Amino acid sequence: MTARLSDRRIRTVALLTNPVAGGGRGDRVAHRAAERLRSHGLEVDSLRGSSAEESLDLARQAIAGGVDALAVCGGDGMVSLAVQAQAFTGVPIGIIPAGTGNDLAREYGVPLDSPEAAADVVAGGRVEQVDLGRATPDGGAPHVFASVLCAGLDSAVNRRVNEMTILGGPLRYVLASIIEFPTYRPRRFRMTFDPGEAGEETVEAEVLLSAFAITRSYGGDMMIAPDADRSDGLFDVCYVGRISRLRLAWHFRRIYSGTHVGLRGVTTRRCRAVRIEAQDVEAFADGDAVAPLPVNVEVLPGAGLFLVPRSLGHH
Fold first, then answer.
1. For residues 220 and 212, what is the distance between their CA atoms, to the nearest angstrom?
2. How far apart are alpha carbons 201 and 188 in whole angstroms?
3. pLDDT 10s digits, 151-206
4. Catalytic residues
5. How do residues 55-80 score in pLDDT, each as one tens digit?
């Protein structure tokens, strides 16, 4: 699908920072980005949330105040907070990467190693309209996300990553996988795809891991959904059934290149919505906990806006 791109004139930017992102790099990275944004003649309002709740409140206040762009300095979880405030508002999000995985920055072509170059993307004003996802637990509040919702071994790994204090970057995901993999057992899943539509289908299967993807990667560049199109109105679904540990370990590295698709035991499909049910499984999205299953998940077509480099071609 052709990328939906437009140009904006950016004059005012709210820069929301996770001060503990990247092991405490967040503040330093944000300072460099703010200086660069000001060098472009932009007015920058620097915001720091001491918790996820405070950060979300600050993001909502900035958008309600009429800011031209909301830039976030942190990782995928911080971007996820931003999209919960931004969805359907017309205010674009800029990413200043400072997290562990930085999958969303990578997806949108934002430079990972230079806060100044990332700030230049924000100032450039090129906006891409994309899909978001929304997960609603039974009896719970909806949770908007920008990349991948996962449930199974991958969400257990995510929980472990968020609790770890050693290592940094994608290596943390590798170590967490090594820790969780030997003892994790597949669960019985019931997945109802496109419920209420003519093509509704229910699948019951033993599932080791599952991903429902707007974008292509999670876990620090694991290409779980290599063909995902972030503006086609569909999730790319990938789930792995009961396979031997030896076989999974042998093929694990293929997730980084996306060549796991098509292997025996790996199922892929697309859908607009899905209800996911299983016992003792937690759903994670954009690297953060959503809720224990069951969860209803749906695509929000065109709900997201991201500032992207002018050289970025839609994959």
1. 16
2. 17
3. 887 666 666 666 556 555 566 666 666 656 666 678 899 999 999 888 899 999 99
4. 288
5. 999 999 999 999 999 999 988 888 98
With tokens 């289908």, the residue in question is 201
Tokens of 147: 């990349």
For the CA atoms of 59, 78, 98, 305, the dihedral, rounded to the nearest 10 degrees, stands at -70
Chain centroid offset of residue 297 CA: 14
CA 284 to chain centre: 10
| Class of the domain covering 4-130 | alpha beta
CB 294 within 8 A of CB 140: no
Per-residue pLDDT tens over the stretch 282-302: 898 987 888 999 999 999 999
CATH topology of domain 135-302: Tumour Suppressor Smad4 (2.60.200)
Rg (CA), the chain: 19
Residue 190, CB-side half-sphere exposure with 13 Å CA sphere? 6
Q: Alpha-carbon distance 62 to 69, whole Å? A: 9
Distance of alpha carbon 187 from alpha carbon 149, whole angstroms: 17
**What residues pair up with 240 in beta bridges, in sequence order?**
209, 266
Sequence spans of domains, the chain: 4-130, 135-302
What is d(CA 208, CA 295) in angstroms, rounded to the nearest whole number? 17
3-state helix, strand, coil in the chain (%, to 5): 30, 35, 35
Tokens for 293? 């299953």
Band the pLDDT of 251: cuts 50, 70, 90. confident
Q: pLDDT of 79-116, one tens digit each? A: 989 999 999 999 999 999 987 678 899 999 999 999 99
Q: Please state, as a whole number, how many other Cβ atoms lie within 10 Å of the Cβ of residue 138.
A: 12
